[in-house]
Amino acid sequence: MKRKVIIDCDAGIDDAQAILIALSQEVEVLAITCVAGNVKLDNVCANVLKVLELCGRTDIPVYKGSTCSLLGDVTSASHFHGLDGLGDAEGIPDPDTTLLKSEHAVNALIRLINDHPSEITLVAIGPLTNVALACRLDPCICSKLKELVIMGGNIEAKGNVSVSAEFNFHSDVEAAYVVLNEFASPITLVTWEVCLNHAFSWDFCDVYCSQGTSKSHFVKKISDKSTRFYKKMYAGMGKGKTICDCLAMVVALQPESVSKETSVYATVERHGHLTRGQMVVDWRGTLGKKPNVKMVQEVDMESFKALMMKSVQ
Q1: In what residue span(s) does the Inosine/uridine-preferring nucleoside hydrolase domain sit (predicted)?
Q2: Which of 10, 106, 264, 270 is the most buried (most CB within 10 A)?
Q3: 10 classed as catalytic
């Protein structure tokens, strides 16, 4: 049987690239659910549809979800992803937004998970608002996933949006707290620092974007803004190009590519003045709690590169 996958995303540039990876693999993408994060929700939905139209896969249902965090906060990463979320690239046709389903993304998540108990891998590569709301509306789904793979959190207090927090967790701290502390299904975390440690060289990026296909041309256009950002060598952003959501997608679809991992208890700081949104990992078992996440530490880079290349062919 094909692996059943749902992608929950805030489609910016790396989300779009992660979707391309999923569509290049022998998996069944049951749905893509959209959440505000990198850009506003309407842009997120439009960007997902652009990718699906590019790939001729508009048969995959797309659902609109949460417009803001559980507490009503609205975030943006337009400095990196552009105002539209795809690098403000020109020449990309507007999608047919009538393809969006009328059912809310949270309700779709609940329905699909209940319809396919223990069969679905949910790949969450944006703020966890939709996932937390689904958990609140139907707590039973928390134990019905095959696996929940999350791109989010940090393990060395390195922040990419605040001094000590990663963007997805910081965008909805309460949602991240709910998911980590209440989900009973296996959770795999791909954190910010692990993504930094699996950055691509600029030589690889040039080859990746120069395959002469419509997909590679699309990726090059939407990536220009983020490439300029990284090449300015912003402090704390690593060397080369980090593509976080793609790493999480590879971990979800090709778990054998993970060469090092560990199981730990992790939660999220909700109240600190400087540390709100920072993930707290109990490395030494001080809290006496059972591990609730599998923490990815190393991924085979050759496998990662191969899936990236295949996604744009």
Answers
A1: 5-305
A2: 10
A3: yes
